[in-house]
Amino acid sequence: MEQRRKGLHYAAGLVLMISGIQASAEVLGGNVAIASQIDALPIVLRPLSRAAGQLKRCWRTPNPAGANGQSEIDECEANAGAKWTLAFQAEKNGYAGQTCAGAESQSLQLYPFGKSGPAIYTWDGPANQHSLVLKQDYELFQHPCGGDIFNWNVLMRHIDLEGGALPSPAQVTQIVDFRWKEWIRENSERRVIAAFQGFWNNQSHLIEINLYSPGWSDAVPQNDDILVATSWPTGLATYIVLNSTAVSGNLIVDSLQQVEINWLPVLENLVARGLLPRPAGGWPNSVTQALAFGFEYHNKAPQQSGVGDMEIFKFEISSTGSSASIPEQNDFDSWRYVASNPDLISAIGIDISRSRKHYYEHGFWEGRARTSFDCLAYEIRNSDLKPMFHSDCTKLTKHWIEYGYQQGRSTR
Q1: 156 lies in some domain
Q2: SS3 for 227?
Q3: Residue 99: pLDDT band with limits 50, 70, 90
Q4: Interatomic CA distance for residues 190 and 305, integer angstroms
Q5: In terms of domains, do 298 and 335 share one?
Q6: d(CA 83, CA 79)
Q7: Rounded to an integer, what distance in angstroms lies between the CA atom of residue 250 and that of residue 101?
Q8: Same domain as 330, residue 313
Q9: Which of 278, 305, 323 is at the close of a domain?
């Protein structure tokens, strides 16, 4: 397939950019048909009446000492030492993962507003209460690599780039207040993106969500929420791009908005569809490597190719849950858990240890029901069981697992 779009790869200790692929609705490399979207995902865009800067000017490029490297640390103490990373990757269409200038993820020099260059940034507002403007201007300035360049520009936290600790994939929520503005010509394309990268099973896995991508080059059915699902030879085991049909709400240009993403249900949805591997031993055995927000601009001409302007007011990363909320084992009814999840009946049966292991490694993080099976309702709906079990819930639950489910008996 012709290489038409690009994304990113946050490898451990390194940030790499990768070129993507014009994707039909298939898993690239595996030719496995993508299942339809299972559930509405917790990816929500909502309007805001007002927004205030909440960012600290404590940032670096991926390699401050390299070509186009930069950093500002004057507000890092107020930020508990954790640094933001500003990344900019420019790639010629068709050259996967190859920066057209400069170093990886800092292809172009980032210029403060008022200085000369197409990649511009501005920290607005008082100390420790900034908004950040990321701007690409291909009207006034000529791209140093020419035309037909994919330019990816994000603000991110990365654990290997002094970004501090991040909540686990089972607990992480990303909330960003922003405003997107654009001056578009026919010879340009753009997309607004949020991204997650995690590490498990000794591999990195990257998920991008296109919050807004009109006219983007991926050739997929309009109602398909998957643009790309593939692996990447540079060490990225999974690279998935969701399009805006996966998002609740619409991005409105030049309007204050907030996006909120609870990442675990998104990851579980992709696991259930066979697009993403589950961590061996469950989500506790996984790590969030990076979270990012920004945009990508495709300037098809060296100049007079439009402007993209993203202002970020807040980038909040929070923990939505805790492993402490997992019930103690003496409160856990293994058979009732299996009985409440018919797909586990044939897989686990009455094996108590396997039932507990499944719940603690998978079921809790998937939000599975523990107590939806009603033993007394099962007995009432099946009157022949009353003289045998006399409302003994343990025996009734065991009977449902071993016989009743396969016999098609009613439980309600």
Answers
A1: yes
A2: strand
A3: confident
A4: 11
A5: no
A6: 8
A7: 34
A8: no
A9: 323
